[in-house]
Amino acid sequence: xxxxxxxxxxxxxxxxxxxxxxxxxxxxxxxxxxxxxxxxxxxxxxxxxxxxxxxxxxxxxxxxxxxxxxxxxxxxxxxxxxxxxxxxxxxxxxxxxxxxxxxxxxxxxxxxxxxxxxxxxxxxxxxxxxxxxxxxx
Length: 137
Description:
With 137 residues, the protein is an all-alpha fold. It has one domain (21-133). The protein is built from seven helices and no strands. It has helices at residues 21-38, 42-49, 53-60, 69-88, 92-98, 111-115, 120-133. The termini are far apart. 23% of the residues are buried. The model has no long low-confidence stretch (mean pLDDT 90).
């Protein structure tokens, strides 16, 4: 008599493909639009992206270079922040204004103030806060 074997169809663990430089360039262009909507200066944007000011200016002019892992992670977090704000605030301008509003969760500082700390973890802190507020965790 043949033995029956139980087959369990479990999904494979999530393993995202690395972000390509082309995808990162598109994310950079989207981040430029975010910075404009948020009222972020070029100097502030360079700090948030951890780019020398001259490099940021060159990339903003369309001459993007290679994106390192840290830069891709920064761009991903910025777009995650934008996504969370779009979910939380139905009106775009309210979400854009939130970035500069003082917030008790950040010790009375704004999300922009936190991001201007210049570390990737500063961006991650803002994103985690927003993801928790929208119930994503």
